[in-house]
Amino acid sequence: MLRTALSQYTVVDIPVLLATIEDLKRLIIEQQRLITEQQRLITKLRAENAHLKARIAAFESRLNQNSRNSSRPPSMDGFRRPTTSRKKGERPPGGQKGHEGHTLRPVLNLDVVVVHTASTCSRCGISLDHVEPSAVEQRQVFDILPPQLIVTEHRAEHKQCPHCGRTHPAEFPC
C-alpha cells in the first residue's frame, strides 16, 4: 500500500514534499513551544486563582462577623433582625388550648390601696361624688422598686488593756 502511495509521486514532487516536511517540523516545534508557554501560564493562573480565593474567603469572613461571633460591639451589627433557627410549626403562636397558664395570684397583704372614684356621669354629666358605689373592680399591680443605696460607716474601736497596757484594735468585717 505504501509502495502504491509513493509510486504516484514523480521525481519532481520530491523537493516539494521535503519542503512540506520541513514546514511541518517547524510547525510542530512552534506548537510545542506554544504548549509549553501555555502550561506555564496555566500554572501561574492557578496559583493566582488560589491566592484570590483565599483573599475572598478572608473578606467574606470579615463581612460575616457580628457581635455574637467576634469582639465587635453590638452597635456595629447593623439593623438586620436576628433570625431564629426554629422552623415554623403548625400551631399558632402563644399559649395552646388546654395549657395551664401561669399568672401572678392576688395577694392579701397589700402595701398601698388606691381607690379610683367616678366623679361625673359620662352620659349626662351629673356629679357622682355623693353616690355609693354599686360594685368594686380590683386589679393588683406588682412593682419592683429600684434598689436604694445604703451607706454604712464601720468604726473599729481601739482599747487599751488595763493590766498590760497593750492597745488592741477591733477587727473590721470582711
List keywords for this structure.
two-stranded antiparallel ribbon, mainly alpha, 2 helices, 174 residues
Write the layout of secondary structure elements.
Layout: H1 2-7, H2 13-63, E1 158-160, E2 167-169
Antiparallel strand pairs: 1-2
Radius of gyration: 49 Å
Structural class: mainly alpha
Number-wise, the strands total 2
Overall body shape: elongated
Report, as a whole number of angstroms, the end-to-end distance. Answer: 114 Å
Query: How many separate helices?
Result: 2
Level of helix content? Answer: 25-40%
Main β-sheet: number of strands, strand sense, barrel status? Answer: 2 strands, antiparallel
Spans of 5+ residues with little confidence (pLDDT < 50)?
none
**Helix-strand pattern, N to C?**
HHEE
Strand content: under 5%
Mean pLDDT: 85
Question: What does this 3D model show about the protein?
Answer:
It is a single chain. The longest helix has 51 residues. The protein has a domain of 55 residues. A hairpin with a 6-residue loop joins strand 1 and strand 2. Strands 1-2 form a two-stranded antiparallel ribbon. It is built from two helices and two strands. With 174 residues, the chain is mainly alpha-helical. It is elongated and about 140 Å long. It starts with a helix and ends in a 5-residue tail after the last strand.
